[in-house]
């Protein structure tokens, strides 16, 4: 069964591009655009990993990550944080809150695919992942 | 130890004058000059004046060495440069031997510090201009989308015709959006070429001088009460700085760094805990916390002091707070404290943004009797300490803003005037 990725991002064209490249790589991609209701979507979808944008309408990606880590069912769910803000402060906060990977926009397609594969792909078991893809 | 002789020797060698020739010109023996130059004989009066004249120097410079304030500014410049190659131990010698160069180094260091502060102010303003933040986010999003989509279209893998058409349309839409946003951004930043230089008020001048050491005053910590002359400051700013130093000295005497620093660390820099533990007024503890020397584990702490009219008397900003003395949001906890003197207020303040900026604030207002007697209205002073808060949003968090003109909270009950949306872009 294909691994499921939930992409929480509010830019339609970025959603389309990421969905395309991950689907082509064999992943099933679900998308969600609103921060406020993101946790409901996670509970309903039960994805294998999440790609989470920071700047979302309704609730920030940092707050969603905090909620994910506070819930036993999602406390260890792999999360790739995606942000237009590459400041060290944001990077540190994402790491402290428990993001597995932190990537800044603009990203390369190959890099994002490699990070998703490393987090949940068959070839690289989770745990063997660089924590900061852009450091 | 008096180093007058060493300075004479250094300047003589710089001027390439033989010891014998200099001695002869002032009517003493070369061996006596040699003793003077090695600081084995004290020198002053007429002979010092003659030697200074022979070397073309001000006698005071030879006798007193470099101005202590100038040396202090040079040392601050060396430490700010964080360069291990700077011979900081020779700072006083350098200032005495090359006073012109020394003044240039100090003046340039002051200028760099002023520019850094200005850049920080602009950065804070940019951070809190919601329209600008949205526009910049739009630029990055459009660039990300274009790059990712173009990589798909130009990659080795075949893309079917429907997807190709869709991606071409996406790139066109993003490029159009990028062009519009870029044009608006250029207009936004296109300041007039002949814009007048920013003139600072005496208060801002003083705060700028204090910011060079993070409001920490080493001389006052060591027991000094006088403020070193700073030729860069206007008379008004120098007077305010002297007042600041006098209060700083009194605070340092009441809460010496040797005991205060360990207590502050142990209490995780929480002013309420430190105040309770050390038995000192909360406002005094907050002033001390905001002026600690740089510590590895100390968080950046901001300070705001205002009078009963809400006019800011002292402002030390903290990164991300976007504080400016004009048009402060009335919802800041310091104004709650102003309405209930003597009672401490602790609250989480939240600035708008995506993500929002959270700050832990402690504030208190103190009643100070009027010096002319109890028949006159008392003076009230409120003090607030701020620190960044990366924790979760508190249930009772107070939504504040960086001033109505920049604040996007349209339904705020405390709004005084409409927001000025300076970047009209539909994204």
TrEMBL record, chain A:
<feature type="domain" description="Response regulatory">
    <location>
        <begin position="4"/>
        <end position="120"/>
    </location>
</feature>
<protein>
    <submittedName>
        <fullName>Response regulator receiver domain-containing protein</fullName>
    </submittedName>
</protein>
<dbReference type="GO" id="GO:0000160">
    <property type="term" value="P:phosphorelay signal transduction system"/>
</dbReference>
<dbReference type="InterPro" id="IPR050595">
    <property type="entry name" value="Bact_response_regulator"/>
</dbReference>
<keyword id="KW-0902">Two-component regulatory system</keyword>
<dbReference type="InterPro" id="IPR011006">
    <property type="entry name" value="CheY-like_superfamily"/>
</dbReference>
<dbReference type="InterPro" id="IPR001789">
    <property type="entry name" value="Sig_transdc_resp-reg_receiver"/>
</dbReference>
<keyword id="KW-0804">Transcription</keyword>
<keyword id="KW-0805">Transcription regulation</keyword>
<keyword id="KW-0597">Phosphoprotein</keyword>
<dbReference type="Pfam" id="PF00072">
    <property type="entry name" value="Response_reg"/>
</dbReference>
<dbReference type="GO" id="GO:0003677">
    <property type="term" value="F:DNA binding"/>
</dbReference>
<keyword id="KW-0238">DNA-binding</keyword>
<feature type="modified residue" description="4-aspartylphosphate">
    <location>
        <position position="53"/>
    </location>
</feature>
Automatic annotation (TrEMBL), chain B:
<dbReference type="GO" id="GO:0003677">
    <property type="term" value="F:DNA binding"/>
</dbReference>
<protein>
    <recommendedName>
        <fullName>HTH cro/C1-type domain-containing protein</fullName>
    </recommendedName>
</protein>
<dbReference type="InterPro" id="IPR010982">
    <property type="entry name" value="Lambda_DNA-bd_dom_sf"/>
</dbReference>
<feature type="domain" description="HTH cro/C1-type">
    <location>
        <begin position="8"/>
        <end position="62"/>
    </location>
</feature>
<dbReference type="InterPro" id="IPR001387">
    <property type="entry name" value="Cro/C1-type_HTH"/>
</dbReference>
<dbReference type="Pfam" id="PF01381">
    <property type="entry name" value="HTH_3"/>
</dbReference>
